[in-house]
Specification:
By secondary structure, this protein is α/β, with parallel strands linked by helices. It contains 14 helices and 10 strands. Helix 11 runs parallel beside helix 12. The protein starts with a strand and ends with a helix. Strand 6, helix 9 and strand 7 form a beta-alpha-beta unit. It has a 5-stranded parallel β-sheet, with helices on both faces. Strands 7-6-8-9-10 form a 5-stranded parallel β-sheet, sandwiched between helices.
Length: 339
């Protein structure tokens, strides 16, 4: 039957780095099967206006590459379901993914398959190409802070905040609603919410958990939520005895159970300990919700659902996170209000 190799990605704006990865992946077996995210899946991971090329166009390009034997489109956020159907002998991702972060790795290793992270061809990335194109356009108020003077700075900062909120109103209302429903479904099934993040995102984790356990504005029953950022003894012991990358994942192994929901907060989408927390949550059957920014595709692609604030500035992303979190709290108050 030969050796089946599987890899996956969005493959939106295919470049020489993709070609190199696919060629080297094919060398690991006799058949290379590529899974690509559907258009709706790409939008969930990367936000509007992605993808630039439709799923059919992306699949057609890949099918015409010498290294690729078969292309399958999947609509889920992750290729986990497809991997379990295919049962590849070798599971491959690019070198920007650690083997511990690769979806399906434990499943493939479980029947003796191999999981390999292939170093990337230096100098190529779809995100880099997009950023280069964007840099040729006129800067928005969100990114233009070159003028001097406190009054101008204040005005620009407030306007950039308003711009992000307007984008949320225009394009993200359905996503905000779906995430809120995800949280409510978890609570109605009698499960709990776990929340993690670093720095300002750690503060947001505590803030959100406090609103759930207490109340937002309306009297209702207490709701189970735990911020994994508050127990200083656990945080320091886990960092000292293991390493900081496992500071949240170890707590999830201890406190989480199947059906719980992890809200994973990272403005960049690249925080190693948050990514590790998501993988641990998935392993025990928890649902996962990402809160990140417009460049947080790595975190978003690992989670069941995501909120991606349409900004690249940390401050604006954090403001967007807590604004949306308050909206979720308002929705939850309404749902569980004491009558």
């Amino acid at each position: 039957m030969g050796v089946v190799v599987f890899t996956n990605g969005c493959f939106d704006i295919i470049h020489p780095g993709h070609i190199d990865l696919l060629n080297r992946a094919k060398q690991l077996g006799t058949k290379l099967l590529v899974g690509i995210n559907s258009d709706s899946s790409v939008r969930r991971i990367k936000g509007e206006p992605r993808p630039f090329l439709s799923q059919d166009d992306r699949a057609e390009i890949l099918r015409n590459l010498k290294a690729v034997d078969e292309v399958q489109i999947f609509d889920e956020t992750t290729p986990e379901k497809l991997i379990k159907q295919i049962k590849p002998d070798v599971l491959v991702k690019g070198g920007d993914w650690k083997t511990t972060q690769i979806i399906g790795a434990d499943f493939v290793r479980g029947y003796g398959g191999k999981v390999i992270s292939i170093p990337l061809k230096i100098g190529y990335s779809s995100s880099g190409i997009v950023e280069k194109i964007k840099s040729l356009s006129i800067n928005s108020t969100e990114t233009s802070f070159t003028e001097v003077g406190s009054s101008k700075l204040i005005e620009k900062s407030l306007n950039s905040h308003i711009e992000v909120v307007q984008k949320l109103i225009k394009k993200e209302q359905q996503r905000i609603e779906r995430c809120g429903e995800f949280i409510i479904d978890t609570l109605e099934r009698g499960n709990k919410i776990l929340i993690c993040g670093n720095g300002g995102s750690a503060a947001d984790a505590q803030h959100i958990a406090a609103e759930f356990v207490g109340r937002y504005e309306t009297e209702r029953r207490a709701l189970p939520a735990i911020a994994l950022t508050t127990d200083t003894s656990a945080l320091t012991a886990l960092t000292n005895d293991y390493n900081f990358e496992h500071v949240f994942s170890r707590q999830i192994e201890a406190l989480g159970k199947e059906g719980d929901l992890l809200i994973a907060i990272s403005t960049s989408g690249n925080s190693a300990n948050v990514l590790s927390a998501v993988m641990s949550a998935r392993n025990i059957g928890c649902k996962t919700l990402a809160m990140t920014g417009s460049n947080g595709k790595k975190l978003a692609s690992l989670c069941d659902i995501s909120l991606m604030i349409p900004s690249e500035r940390t401050a604006r992303i954090q403001e967007g996170h807590i604004t949306v979190a308050h909206i979720w709290c308002e929705i939850i108050d309404s749902k569980f209000e004491v009558t």
